[in-house]
Specification:
The chain is about 25% helix and about 20% strand. The chain is an alpha+beta fold.
């Protein structure tokens, strides 16, 4: 304040996030300022330049004023032969260039937030209102009956005691969750592979519990985190895992710092550290506990944690347990993160205005509830500019993203040295249990001594550690085979094919390309059990998610793809999902026409268009098969591949466009074998042999070739007097 004769900084407007506490790595220094003047008014506003904030460890070092260009990672996304070929995949964020007074600065605009359609929001709120109304009516009736007939309807709490559970979440559990709990926590009696055996259950009279009955339902598994297919038994790996169990026992029953460390654990730590490109790693026996116990060990009161608003509950619990101050930035938005960093460094700690002991930014590599990949590169650049540590949770991305499975860093082209702390689990891609922390050797040695997951919890079972090691070696190719690389490529193919199929059938799909998690919005509460039950009846096991795991009106179904799925499995699953989506009415983006809007309606100017509806023998781009084209706008190849089609006219050319469900679109320029149009005396429909040029539109530049469409023998014969087939393109 000027009245106190001291220079001050502008206290930038804070975002109003709830403070939960802070702790200690590379302190941030700033010019001291007072909270209020002597007269109780706010201090005089002075503009803050973030480049003037001096790092404590080097008093003469100023932060860079421009973003350092990101370096291409050693495993930057390669041109894998997957659909689509573009990498790193579709994202809803928009990259833009902005100018400031100091020159050019590349910024990433705020990621587009998912908005609920107003009609879906209206019907969803109405559905919940009806459920809540009837729930309270039932509660009132039960209370009245307990007063009239206390012996038959005992009170829920003893006399003189307040109800132990008496909030909306318990009401939601009793009146909504119990009625549809058959859709959740389904037990299985098989390995969680591509196909599973779901045990049949029945509800109790009051819907509060379920009991297992005889019989199982064999279903295609689209609900398990089995990204690379290691959950199923591999005979080569099984023998080594069994040998480890016989050598070291089923479990060590001790913490890592006592008797819980074996050669298998050390081998796994060396393997994972080398795989992710860090000096050392620490293996912890539980994935959830990795986040919840490591964060309190590396930061405490006086520190600041800046967390993505959609981070996992293990990160939330760990941040709250640390005692550090917590702030939240908008999901995947580097701009929101930079704004919070500027304000936090300028303001310092609450009340005392002292500099933060350290600042840690926590993000996830792949957000499992949204299917979105972290916008890591601009986030890392912002953190480097403001000297904040980066903590990346790769529970879902390690093994599943990147050309060689090294996770979101490889996928986004970020160097491992640019990320300070890397966390991951062995449960999703490696068919095992537990988690790991990778970083500098000093950090790992500190965590061995102070992290509760290392000092108090039981260590990872030796058999599970061996399984994770063998899976890692296969992914790296250390076993001398290409099985690991093939699994990664197959997972990406399956994920992109399934996502594109859902989008084309009109479902509202969240997330990015290459993500093995594909969420589809349901919204209405009545559609949660309907979709799950209808799918299970058709031998398809899916996971439906609702409140409190998601916002009240953002219920969804979450498909989890695996490298163990075959293309035939997924094609059949898409047909089931399409049928169920029609019954449940969740095709919120259905245009009313088959997949793509035809540029030329089949019912208009039929006499001027070539009629391609029928059965054909097709040969092009090296394959030869039958092709069935229907008047509904769909076509099917003999091997089961399907898609949508339409015909358009460009000048003198007639073009047949094939929109494959799984592959890139093709355009066939139709012409007669001799290149000329031949008039036909036959009435419509007209049949002829097509022979012309074709090109695949998804390639850059488009891949070109030739094709031939010949009517099936004996099917479409047009006798012009001499029994010949008439060939033409179109009438003048």
């Amino acid at each position: 304040s000027p009245r106190q004769g001291r220079d001050t900084l502008l206290l930038l407007t804070s975002l109003g996030t709830s403070g939960r506490g802070g702790s200690a790595m590379a302190p941030h220094q700033r010019t001291r300022c007072s909270a209020e003047g002597a007269n109780g008014r706010a201090p005089k506003k002075v503009e803050v330049d973030p480049t003037s904030i001096v790092h404590k460890d080097s008093a003469n070092l100023k932060l860079p004023s421009t973003t350092t260009p990101g370096k291409a990672g050693r495993g930057a996304p390669s041109s894998l032969p997957v659909y689509p070929t573009k990498s790193p995949g579709r994202r809803r964020g928009i990259h833009s260039k902005s100018m400031d007074g100091k020159g050019k600065k590349e910024r990433v605009s705020q990621v587009e937030e998912h908005t609920v359609p107003w009609i879906a929001a209206l019907t969803t709120y109405f559905g919940y209102a009806v459920l809540i109304l009837f729930g309270y009516v039932r509660d009132s009736l039960e209370f009245m009956m307990s007063c009239l007939y206390p012996s038959r309807f005992p009170a829920k709490a003893p006399d003189g005691y307040a109800p132990l559970f008496h909030d909306f979440q318990y009401f939601y559990t009793r009146r909504m969750y119990w009625r549809i709990q058959d859709c959740f926590n389904r037990p299985i009696s098989s390995a969680p592979g591509a196909w599973i055996d779901v045990m049949n259950r029945e509800k109790s009279a009051d819907h509060s519990s379920m009991s297992v009955t005889e019989g199982v339902t064999t279903a295609l598994n689209l609900s398990s985190y089995n990204y690379l297919g290691f959950a199923e038994c591999d005979l080569e790996m099984r023998d080594e895992v069994v040998h480890a169990v016989r050598t070291y026992g089923v479990a060590n029953c001790s913490s890592r710092t006592e008797l819980g460390t074996t050669e298998v654990h050390r081998e796994l730590e060396e393997c994972i550290a080398g795989f992710v490109g860090k000096e050392a790693a620490l293996v912890i026996g539980m994935g959830f506990a990795t986040n919840s116990t490591v964060l309190p060990a590396i930061i405490g009161p006086g520190g600041l944690i800046i967390s993505d608003e959609l981070n996992h509950s293990s990160i939330v619990n760990g941040a709250r347990g640390s005692g550090a101050k917590i702030k939240v930035f908008k999901h995947n938005s580097a701009e929101s993160l930079e704004k919070i960093l500027r304000e936090s460094i300028s303001e310092g700690q609450p009340r005392t205005r002292r500099p933060w002991t350290k600042i840690i930014v926590v993000v996830e590599g792949l957000y499992s509830m949204e299917g979105e990949i972290c916008n890591l590169k601009p986030i890392v650049e912002v953190c480097k500019r403001y000297r904040a540590y980066v903590y990346v949770d790769e529970a879902h991305s390690i093994g599943a993203l990147g050309a060689t499975g090294r996770g979101v860093l490889e996928h986004c082209g970020v160097e491992p040295e640019d990320v300070d702390i890397m966390m991951g689990t062995f449960t999703k891609s490696f068919g095992s249990v537990g988690g790991y922390i990778a970083g500098s050797r000093e950090l790992v040695e500190l965590l061995r001594r102070v992290c509760p997951g290392s000092t108090h919890a039981c260590s990872m079972a030796p058999g599970c550690a061996k399984q994770a090691t063998l899976a890692l070696r296969m992914i790296m190719g250390a076993d001398g085979t290409s099985k690991g690389r093939d699994k990664i490529e197959q997972l990406r193919r399956n994920a992109n094919m399934f996502r594109v199929g859902l989008e084309r059938m009109g479902c509202e799909v969240l997330g990015d390309m290459d993500s093995p998690v594909v969420p589809v919005m349901l919204y209405n509460p009545s559609k949660i059990p309907a979709f799950s039950r209808e799918c299970l009846e058709r031998k398809l096991a899916v996971v439906v998610v609702g409140f409190p795991a998601t916002p009240l009106i953002k219920s969804r179904v979450r498909f989890c793809l695996s490298a163990a799925h075959s293309e035939e499995d997924l094609i059949a699953a898409l047909k089931v999902v399409s049928e169920v989506s029609e019954r449940v009415m969740i095709k919120y983006k259905w245009s009313g026409k088959p997949n793509v809007v035809p540029q030329c309606d089949l019912n208009q100017n039929r006499e001027h268009l070539v009629n391609v509806v029928g059965e054909w023998d097709a040969q092009h781009f090296g394959w030869r098969d039958s092709l069935s084209i229907s008047s509904s706008g769909r076509f099917a190849r003999g091997n089961g591949d399907e898609g949508s089609w339409h015909v358009r006219v460009e000048g003198a050319k007639t073009i047949l466009r094939l929109e494959w469900d799984r592959w890139d679109s093709e355009e066939l320029v139709l012409q007669a074998p001799d290149g000329d149009a031949v008039a036909s005396p036959c009435p419509s429909p007209r049949r002829h042999v097509f022979k012309g040029k074709a090109r695949i539109m998804g390639e850059t530049p488009p891949l070109k070739g030739t094709f031939t469409l010949r009517p099936k023998e004996g099917r479409y014969v047009c006798d012009g007097g001499d029994g010949q087939h008439f060939k033409f393109v179109r009438h003048s």
